[in-house]
Amino acid sequence: MQTVIRIKVSDIDEAFIKSIKSLFKKSGEVEIAIQPADDKDETSYLLSTEANRKALDKSLKEAKAGKYIKVNLDNLK
After folding, report:
1. Which of 30, 32, 38 shows the shortest CA–CA distance to 12?
2. Distance between alpha carbon 46 and the CA centroid of its chain, in Å?
3. Which of 42, 40, 1 is nearest to 24 (CA)?
4. Strand, coil or helix: what is 21?
5. What is the pLDDT of residues 14-53, one digit of tens each?
6. 60 close to 47: Cβ distance less than 8 angstroms
7. Would you call 9 exposed, middle or buried from its count of C-beta atoms within 10 A (0-12, 13-18, 19+)?
8. Which is nearest to 58 in space by CA: 67, 45, 71?
9. Which of 3, 48, 51, 69 is deepest in the core (most CB within 10 A)?
10. 74 in a structural domain
11. What is the structure's pLDDT at 61?
12. In a domain, 72, yes or no
């Protein structure tokens, strides 16, 4: 099971830690990765605006319909 929790730094307290322990007590071990909430991955960034979502959706539909240009990477050297 993977859970993503977005929380204000000021709300991280003993009660929060207890809730994490309770949520995952059967696991015995968890991995915690921390990053600033504004540090989005590439996919999240690209999907963060309506205009980007529409452009990506259009491009995906075109690619699925075979409307793309094949490029030989060896020719780019």
Report:
1. 32
2. 10
3. 1
4. helix
5. 999 999 999 888 888 888 888 787 766 778 778 888 999 9
6. no
7. exposed
8. 67
9. 48
10. no
11. 96
12. no
Quick check: is 28 in a domain? yes
The number of C-alpha atoms within 13 Å of 68 and in the hemisphere containing its C-beta is 11
- Number of domains into which the chain is organized: 1
- Is 33 within the bounds of a domain? yes
Residues 6+ apart with CB under 8 A from 11: none
40: which residues sit within 8 A by CB, 6+ positions away?
A: 48
Over its C-alpha atoms, the chain yields an Rg (Å, rounded) of 21
Place of tokens 């696991």: 27
Q: Annotate 33-64 with DSSP letters as a single string.
A: ----TT---HHHHHTSSHHHHHHHHHHHHHHH
pLDDT for 15 equals: 94
Closest-CA residue to 31 (of 20, 19, 18): 20
Q: How far apart are CA 56 and CA 60, in angstroms?
A: 6
Domain that holds residue 37: 9-67
